[in-house]
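Possible regression after last week's pipeline update?

I re-ran a chain I had predicted before the update to compare outputs. Posting the input and the new output here so someone can diff against the archived version. Not blocking, just want to make sure nothing changed silently.
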Amino acid sequence: MSALNIRNVRKVFGKTTVLDDIHLQASAGEFIILVGASGCGKSTLLNMIAGLDVPTSGSIHIGDRDVTHLPSKDRDIAMVFQSYALYPTMTVAGNIAFGLEMRKVPRPERDKAIARVAKMLQIEHLLDRKPAQLSGGQRQRVAMGRALARDPKLFLFDEPLSNLDAKLRVEMRAEIKALHQRLKTTSIYVTHDQVEAMTMADRIVVLNGGEIEQIGTPLELYHQPKTRFVAGFLGAPAMNFLPVVVQGDSVQLPGGGTLVMQAELKPSRQGAAELGVRPERLRVVGPDAPSQLRCEVTVVEPLGADTLVMMRCEGHKLVVRGPGDSPLRPGDTAQLALDADAVTLFDPQTGQR
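New output (post-update):
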């Protein structure tokens, strides 16, 4: 097992700064996931960890070694790509053993490694097949097996599940997480899918415009986002946002509703703000119950266990997660209530909480 330490890393292409002053430390055995919108720099950072690119400045350490300028082959890492990158003329066994063969590992040791990872990934019955004879999920297991056979100090995953269908992605997510819990190898995983990040990571690194917005556990980022970007990026559906005005210990909502903040939640700033609230923290209440918002239902999406209800409130769109048997229908008028401990307030200029 090995820790990863990234210090003051900066990457510039021409006049464009892709990554700016990145600091990240992964403890031995930790599963770190890098997320962010396209172009935020997450794949560039992974490429530099892998040795496929070099920083403009800063350093990268794996364990106690500075690997900033070492070639990939000398870093003792294994990488699983979005494309399976299997050799089509080789069998599954040949693909798994190829990296070991290039390292001049003796045949008996290669055979043991093949047997070990094949059993781990439940692909023993596929060892004599070639990639063209495999399904997408089986090919991804073989790609993972090739990485696992190496027994590296660091695993790197570059959106490995993007090419799989929705059902298979869920299954492979669970397999990768179970493998990590068993192997305890330090892992860095890049994805644009925030559901993958929430379900798999020990800690999530949210990148935005080449900078780290926040690092924390999935629940820390979900419940205590430091910025509006983090709040809106994590969560499915995303957090709702409304323009509000803070006056003393009260928040004035669109349409005239008022939310009184508790003493420990009293905003430190007055004036214009942006209120964020998760879909599951908005409550639909009866006509005689206290409420803060009056909305029109526009779309209803039943999901079985629950229902997503899209609404328009004073020109602003909201999503409410309700029970599976919600009686609401498009065109209905609904009253919404929210609690002070359910909302997060952001500065509309800086985006800071």
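Follow-up from reviewer: compared with the archived run. The helical segments are 42-50, 92-102, 107-121, 136-149, 166-183, 194-200, 218-223, 228-233. Marking as no regression found.
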